[in-house]
Amino acid sequence: MTTPIAPAQSPEGDVPVRRITPGMTADVAVATALLGFLDTIEHNVPGTIEDRDPEFLHDLRVAVRRTRSLIKLAGDVLPAPLAERYAPRFKWLGDLTTPTRDLDVYLLRLNDLAEWLVGAEGDDLDPFAEHVRRQRSKSRRSLVRGLRSQRFSSLCRNWRTALTAVVDGRAGMDASADPAGQRSRSAPVTVEHLAADRVRHAYKRVLRRAQVITPDSPAEQIHALRKRCKELRYILEVFEPVCAPGKHRSVVKRLKRVQDVLGDFQDGEVQSAALRSFAQQMLDDDPPPAATLLAMGELSARFTAQQHQARLSLTAALPRLVGANTHSRIEAMLPARTLA
């Protein structure tokens, strides 16, 4: 069948590591983490524009998602206008990069998808692969225009300037804002205080969603839980340097198990629907051979079965994440809520 995109081991070059450290004030810690995500975004732009390897776009998108999550979950400790001003701008960037990455995933998985086929042959997917490549070429033109635009360059430049001012203490902000809304604004809040508050908050959001999940829950509830779990994972990653290492690894491991099941559920639903949409596009454009449509239908059915299995696996996996043992591990993991 058509040769898929071959993933490289990793994009060339390393991005300088920015890590929060114990004792940092909350605003400096959040700005430091966001600067690290921005470094990753900018590092991966040339490789994405030149289409050197799909991993450049993947890493760029992950950094954008982490940026959006941290702005949402802890952006209130930054100077007042920043979170409100930049949240929609990074949403635009996320939306810009989504179509091409979705198509990349199909091309990367072509060989695996071909191995799923039972009643069809791998070569039957060749017209589908060519259709995806044509769609990718169109979406990449929009992507490249966006990444070369003044809008994108201004976003990165102004965001870096604002965050650097926070790190350097030049932002003119009130660093004493209490993330829990309970402390005097005269005492600067440390990253330890912020980590304890926001991890607990994110975990409670996961609990609220998880506790209502049953084998019959609608897909929308499961997708909402997936988003909350992803936010918890990102906030755990950001605050890892101030958490107890062993307990942190244990909590992340438990969370990852649930995320894997949620990913299978999401993948099953989205890919099944996408295959139906691709089939209709191909019929409207230049009708493919019947064998291609039958092969795509077989894949769609396989994804639907994957989603069903993931639903069953989820109700079995959730008790370990939402139980008292995990809650106690999170409490043991978190730093003391100290003041600077």
From TrEMBL:
<dbReference type="Pfam" id="PF05235">
    <property type="entry name" value="CHAD"/>
</dbReference>
<dbReference type="InterPro" id="IPR007899">
    <property type="entry name" value="CHAD_dom"/>
</dbReference>
<protein>
    <submittedName>
        <fullName>CHAD domain-containing protein</fullName>
    </submittedName>
</protein>
<feature type="domain" description="CHAD">
    <location>
        <begin position="23"/>
        <end position="319"/>
    </location>
</feature>
<dbReference type="InterPro" id="IPR038186">
    <property type="entry name" value="CHAD_dom_sf"/>
</dbReference>
